[in-house]
């Protein structure tokens, strides 16, 4: 509603329209400013992660979407999964990658896809290729792979077991029982000593007095022992079927919502969990390094904020 005095309505109308035009210009400019970073985000070369379709079900659809969105925004670059069947041939994977992007910023290959990585590199020598070695498959690099041609990153086993030791001590503060640690036999042979020493250092941080007991299978465990905490790092899953009521720290890619009720923490060293650190290293042109896992705390009862900060 406008108030027109005397014989100048046209002037008032013109002024009013002028203000509207200015507002429209301001809004258009604001929307343009907002659209620029969005345009840049979607046109930048994406980061691709190669994996099997079974991993997607294990990791959890909602969890995967959340991790991809968070890390994509942090990197200001899209992250896309290249999911192939579990029995896909080595030469199939490069084709699957190309279908997702002809020119990605980098491609993350778990070690089990190392032969596919070699084939893809031969076809795309200008693309950054990343070899990922998780806690369960660390070994010497294949003689057929030239390390100078690839980025290579490993799960930081020492850091993971140190932080797991701190967590185990925190969950054991109100109990005098033992801490049982189950490690997969191959893990134990590759880095068992390193992991045990790091875990013990973590216990010492909170002055936990009892030494941990290490096993490579559930059959080695003596059922009569009183436990205060259990760590499952690739072995001992039978524990869930035979015992209950003790806090369990689980090294796994499993969706935390699918973990048994006694699970208080899930330690994830999947490429999805480590992609932000990996790309940060690539941006600095660091060819190799160790990557920490993500610690997801499901039950923080009796765990101090200081301990929670240590686990991040």
Key features?
alpha/beta; Rossmann fold; single chain; globular; 6-stranded mixed beta sheet; 312 residues; 6-stranded parallel beta sheet; 2 domains; 10 helices
Tell me about this structure.
The protein is 44% helix and 20% strand. It has 10 helices and 12 strands. It folds into 2 domains: 47-154 and 271-291, Rossmann fold (3-Layer(aba) Sandwich), CATH 3.40.50; 157-269 and 295-311, Rossmann fold (3-Layer(aba) Sandwich), CATH 3.40.50.2300. The longest helix has 35 residues, at 9-43. Strands 2-1-3-4-5-11 form a 6-stranded parallel sheet, sandwiched between helices. A 6-stranded mixed sheet has the order 7-6-8-9-10-12. By secondary structure, the protein is α/β, with parallel strands linked by helices.
**Describe the biggest sheet?**
6 strands, parallel
- Report the CATH architecture of the largest domain: 3-Layer(aba) Sandwich
Give average pLDDT, whole number.
87
Order of helices and strands: HEHHEHEHEEHEHEEHEEHEEH
Integer tally of domains: 2
| Class derived from helix and strand content | alpha/beta
The CATH topology of the largest domain turns out to be Rossmann fold
Radius of gyration: 26 Å
| Number of distinct beta strands | 12
Strand content: 15-25%
List the uncertain runs.
none
Oligomer category: single chain
Spatial ordering of strands, largest sheet: 2-1-3-4-5-11
What's the name of the CATH homologous superfamily of the largest domain? Response regulator
Question: End-to-end span in angstroms?
Answer: 59 Å
Number of helices: 10
Into which percent range does the helicity of residues fall?
Answer: 40-55%
Described by the principal axes of the CA atoms, the overall outline is globular
| CATH class call of the largest domain | Alpha Beta
């Amino acid at each position: 509603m406008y108030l027109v005095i005397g014989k100048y309505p046209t002037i008032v109308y013109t002024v009013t329209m002028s203000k509207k035009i200015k507002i429209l210009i301001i809004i258009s400019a604001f929307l343009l400013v907002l659209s620029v970073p969005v345009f840049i985000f979607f046109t930048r070369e994406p980061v691709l992660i190669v994996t099997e379709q079974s991993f997607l079900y294990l990791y959890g659809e909602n969890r995967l979407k959340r991790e991809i969105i968070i890390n994509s925004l942090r990197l200001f670059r899209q992250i896309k999964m290249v999911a192939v069947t579990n029995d896909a041939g080595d030469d199939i994977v490069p084709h699957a990658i190309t279908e997702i992007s002809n020119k990605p910023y980098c491609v993350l290959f778990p070690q089990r896809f190392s032969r596919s990585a070699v084939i893809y590199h031969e076809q795309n020598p200008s693309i950054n290729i990343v070899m990922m070695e998780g806690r369960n498959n660390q070994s010497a690099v294949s003689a057929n792979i030239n390390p100078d041609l690839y980025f290579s990153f490993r799960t930081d086993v020492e850091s993971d077991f140190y932080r797991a030791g701190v967590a185990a001590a925190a969950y054991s503060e109100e109990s005098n029982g033992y801490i049982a640690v189950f490690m997969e036999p191959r893990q134990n042979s590759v880095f068992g000593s390193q992991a045990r020493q790091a875990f013990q250092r973590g216990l010492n941080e909170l002055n936990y007095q009892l030494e941990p007991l290490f096993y490579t299978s559930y059959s080695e465990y003596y059922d009569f022992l009183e436990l205060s905490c259990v760590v499952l790092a690739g072995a001992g899953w039978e524990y869930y079927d035979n015992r209950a009521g003790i806090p369990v720290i689980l090294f796994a890619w499993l969706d935390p919502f699918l973990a048994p009720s006694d699970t208080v923490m899930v330690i994830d060293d999947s490429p999805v969990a480590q992609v932000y650190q990996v790309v940060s290293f690539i941006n600095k042109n660091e060819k190799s390094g160790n990557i920490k896992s993500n610690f997801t705390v499901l039950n923080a009862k009796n765990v101090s904020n200081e301990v929670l900060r240590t686990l991040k």
